[in-house]
Specification:
- There is one protein chain.
- This protein is mostly helical.
- The protein has eleven helices and no strands.
- Helix 3 packs antiparallel against helix 6, helix 5 runs antiparallel to helix 10 and helix 8 packs antiparallel against helix 9.
- The protein is globular, with a radius of gyration of 26 Å.
- It starts with a helix and ends with a helix.
């Protein structure tokens, strides 16, 4: 019982860390890109991963966690896949309208459900599907304003959805099947993710912004925000792997949409972004869907953990029958022994 409550506290801590760090980095990056004019998102992400790896390497030196060997081919492919998915998401944002990009992010949940059902034989109840549907409708109402389609943007979005879903499913599967922690997996895969984005980042950013990251003039305040963003990213990357490992890719996506709602609310409160009744209704519907999802998941987990009464009764009957047979055999053997004496 104590072990279960400890696990639940670990999950709550991971969820809280993920939300707090993600909302913080969105606000930091929004100030960096919108207010200070630093538009190089993909290159910035590569720096995030380099700092994350450096931080974890220092933690390993101080024996804060134990490194575990993972098959190099698995880690390399996993790291490259995650790096590519980040690049594709940024390209999707660049080639599509904001509304279509939000649709891309919303499509990740149903596609993840589909992949887990087809390939991992995971079952999702109708209640869970209904709560996810409500969540997606709410986030859609709150965040989607315009939908402009184009062929290149649509292809990039589809590739981004596939790579993101597969990457997040693998994050959960590798941790459970190879019995590695989120820290161990992140430590070994971060260099490959960083390498992919470090090489492709400047090219992707130049394609999207028509500016070169090498020609940009870095002021002290821009450098300060970049350093702050990289430090927050350590917590974001760590909590991402932690949440997916302790829960599931779908739960992580649900959490991601909670962050979207919080960012919209913080944007209105702190940055005075435009906010309409439609945004408010969408956020309320989304939060209601999240609440239902959380409740149904909790109820289903309790059912899985509680013993089935029928199986318990059958087990008790089997044990009683075995005891009776043992006792009968002992009584039969006893007179035979006496007769020999």
């Amino acid at each position: 019982m104590g072990e279960m409550s400890g696990f639940q506290l670990g999950v709550i801590g991971a969820l809280f860390l993920s939300v707090a760090s993600s909302v913080s980095i969105v606000i930091c990056n929004k100030a960096l890109m919108s207010n200070l004019g630093f538009p190089f998102a993909t290159t910035l992400t590569s720096w995030h991963l380099m700092v994350t790896f450096g931080t974890l390497h220092a933690a390993l030196r101080f024996n804060l966690f134990e490194n575990k060997s993972i098959d190099m081919k698995t880690v390399m492919l996993f790291g490259i896949l995650n790096g590519v998915s980040i690049g594709l998401l940024n390209l999707s944002l660049g080639f599509n309208s904001i509304g279509f990009y939000q649709m891309t992010k919303l499509a990740i949940i149903p596609f993840t459900v589909l992949l887990e059902t087809l390939f991992l034989k995971k079952q999702f109840s109708q209640k869970i599907k209904f709560s996810l549907f409500l969540l997606l409708v709410g986030v859609g109402i709150a965040s989607i304003t315009d939908l402009q389609l184009n062929l290149v943007g649509t292809i990039l979005s589809l590739l981004a959805i596939v790579t993101t879903c597969v990457g997040q499913i693998l994050t959960n599967t590798i941790q459970k099947r190879l019995n590695v922690s989120s820290t161990q997996l992140l430590y070994q895969s971060a260099p490959f993710q960083a390498a992919v984005l470090f090489v492709s980042g400047p090219l992707v950013d130049q394609l999207l912004t028509k500016q070169s990251v090498f020609a940009y003039k870095y002021s002290p305040i821009v450098l300060a925000f970049i350093i702050l963003s990289c430090l927050i990213a350590v917590s974001v990357n760590f909590s991402t792997f932690l949440v997916i490992g302790k829960t599931s890719p779908v739960t992580y996506q649900v959490l991601g949409h909670l962050k979207t709602c919080l960012v919209l609310a913080f944007g209105y409160t702190l940055l005075h972004d435009p906010f309409t009744g439609r945004n408010l209704i969408g956020i309320l519907v989304a939060i209601f869907g999240m609440g239902l999802y959380s409740y149904f998941c909790t109820q289903e987990n309790k059912k899985k953990q509680s013993p089935d009464p029928l199986s318990s009764q059958l087990k008790d009957k089997e044990e009683t029958l075995i005891i009776a047979q043992d006792k009968e055999g002992h009584e039969v053997k006893k007179p035979n022994k006496d007769s020999l004496v």
